[in-house]
Description:
Blueprint: H1 7-19, H2 26-32, H3 47-50, H4 52-73, E1 78-88, H5 89-95, E2 101-108, E3 113-118, H6 120-130, H7 148-169, E4 176-183, E5 197-207, E6 209-219, H8 227-231, H9 243-254, E7 260-263, H10 271-275, E8 293-297, E9 300-310, E10 313-321
Antiparallel strand pairs: 1-5, 2-3, 2-4, 3-6, 5-6, 7-8, 8-9, 9-10
Helix pairs in contact: 4-7
Amino acid sequence: MNQILSQDEVDALLKGLDKGEIETEQKGLESDLDYQLYDWNTQGRNLKGDMPLLGMINERFAGTLKNSLSASLRRLVEVDARNLELIKFEEFQRALPIPTSLHLFKMEPLKGTGMLVLESRLVFNLLEAYLGGSGTDSTKVEGRDFTAIEKKIIGKIVSIVLENMTQAWAETFPLKATFVRSETNALAVNVVHPTEFLVSVKMEVEFNKPIGHIIVCIPYASIQPIREKLSGGFQEEDEDVDRGWMERLQKELKSVPVMMSVDLGRTHLSVREFLNMKEGDILVLENDPRKDLTAKVEGHPKFAGIAGKYGNRKVFKVERILNPSSTVGT
């Protein structure tokens, strides 16, 4: 059977398609297709798997930053390293509001420029905390620039963050974070090509409740020269844990800072008693001064001992360990 169409039949077929007289199955095929978009740029880039030491550096970064901010504000601050991810620079720019407290820094001896972002909400809450407030009030931050006082406090926070970043990297690689300049419009900053990737670390800051985020971004290309070092000897092909890697892991964990506090005593007051307090009043604490005090590590009771003085310093002498089974080294 001859299946070749004549020219007249071809012309009639094309005419029918143009007028819609001939139905096609294209729409049905399109709706029935089961597919998933494949991004060739991000496939295979598992930061925590490929470079586990990078995650440990960020955990150490959050720990030291927590202590520094707590000392600067004279109150307990929690800093938690939430996300470690790859993100395109253009996507990162679009996601930031205006104004944004954005600060550029060098990462000597690595090439390239990093970015430190303080969310506007975080800036206003930290400002309130520095001035004696709670630092947890909800404030509308869009629509205006930062004042001179706010910029001064921001500069202090930026210095603290970059110093702790340098300290966190020291045991793995001698990176020195050095401030370059500040910006409020992310669209005016071009540290890499819009389609290139950044390694983004988002840290949540809390005063009893979340008050905002600190975001640190490093060009992905900048850390390529030390990729092997950040891999920490991890071998994907070997399911057995490498002994050398475990030793490095233990060493890194021992340098993670923890917060230790000693409860000197507690008491209960009514609102009336609190409002009537004046200089010279004496509070009777519930603790017996002849009994041991409790020392807490990250909020968990760990040691019992006595308080005293050594020269001009206040000291705490550990008399016994609480919950020995949960302490390090047992």
